[in-house]
Amino acid sequence: STLNPHPPNLMFPIIILALWGILMTSSICLRQTDLKALIAYSSVSHMGLVAAAIIVQTPWGLTGAMTLMVAHGLTSSALFALANTNYERTHTRTLLLVRGLQLAFPLMSTWWLLTNLTNMAMPPTINLLGELFIISTLFNWSTPTIIITGMGTLITATYSLYMFLMTQRGSISTQFQLLPPTHTREHLNLTLHLLPLGLLIMKPALVSGLFT
C-alpha cells in the first residue's frame, strides 16, 4: 500500500535510460569476441530490466525485479563457470579460437545449451517468470516500452545462440585435440546452479519477496 504506482516525473529519464541501456548492451554482445566480456555485458543488459522495474515502483515490478535478480545471479554465475572450464583447457577466451568443443566435451556442451536457454528465459525457469512480470509492469506503465523490451528479448536470444554456436559447433582446432577431461566437481557445480532455476518455478514465492 505504500508503493507509488505512478513514479514522479523525475524518474522518467532514468527509466528511459535503463530501457535504452538494455538495447545498447545487448547489441554490444553481438559483436564481442571475448567470451567473458560477452557474459558480462549480458548481465548489464538484464540489470537494465531490473532497474526499470524497481523505479516504476509497483508490486509486480518489485516481484519481477527480485525474481530476475536471483535467476540471473545463478545463470550468469553458471556462464562464468562454463567460460572458466573452457579457459582452463584452451587458455584463450577468444570465441573464434575455441570452436568445436562439443566434439571434445559432449556433456559440457549440454550444460552450455541448458545455460544459454536459461539465459534466454526459456520455461520452466524462473527467469521467464521474472521477465514476464517486468515486461508486463513496463507495458502497464507505458505501452511503447513493449517495443524496446521485445527487441531486447530478441537480441538476448540472438547473442545466447551466437555464444553457444561459436563455442560448441564447428570444427575443433588441431591444437586443442589433446585436452584434459572435465571433472565431476565441475558438473556438480553446474548442477547446483541450474537445478534451483528449474525447481523454484514450483514455488517462486521463495525468491520473489512479499510484494504480491
TrEMBL record:
| GO CC field | mitochondrial membrane
Which InterPro entries is this protein grouped with? NADH_UbQ_OxRdtase, ND/Mrp_TM
Keywords recorded for this protein, A-Z: Electron transport, Membrane, Mitochondrion, NAD, Respiratory chain, Translocase, Transmembrane, Transmembrane helix, Transport, Ubiquinone
Q: Which reaction does it catalyse?
A: a ubiquinone + NADH + 5 H(+)(in) = a ubiquinol + NAD(+) + 4 H(+)(out)
Q: What family is it from?
A: Belongs to the complex I subunit 4 family.
Membrane topology annotation: Multi-pass membrane protein
Any idea what this protein is called?
Answer: NADH-ubiquinone oxidoreductase chain 4
Q: Which GO terms describe its molecular function?
A: NADH dehydrogenase (ubiquinone) activity; NADH dehydrogenase activity; ubiquinone binding
One of the GO BP terms on file: ATP synthesis coupled electron transport
Q: What is its EC number?
A: 7.1.1.2
The record's subcellular location field reads: Mitochondrion membrane
* Translocase in keyword set: yes
- Name the residues that span the membrane: 12-30, 37-56, 62-83, 95-114, 146-167
Domain (NADH:quinone oxidoreductase/Mrp antiporter transmembrane): give its ranges: 9-156
- Please give the function described in this protein's UniProt entry: Core subunit of the mitochondrial membrane respiratory chain NADH dehydrogenase (Complex I) that is believed to belong to the minimal assembly required for catalysis. Complex I functions in the transfer of electrons from NADH to the respiratory chain. The immediate electron acceptor for the enzyme is believed to be ubiquinone.
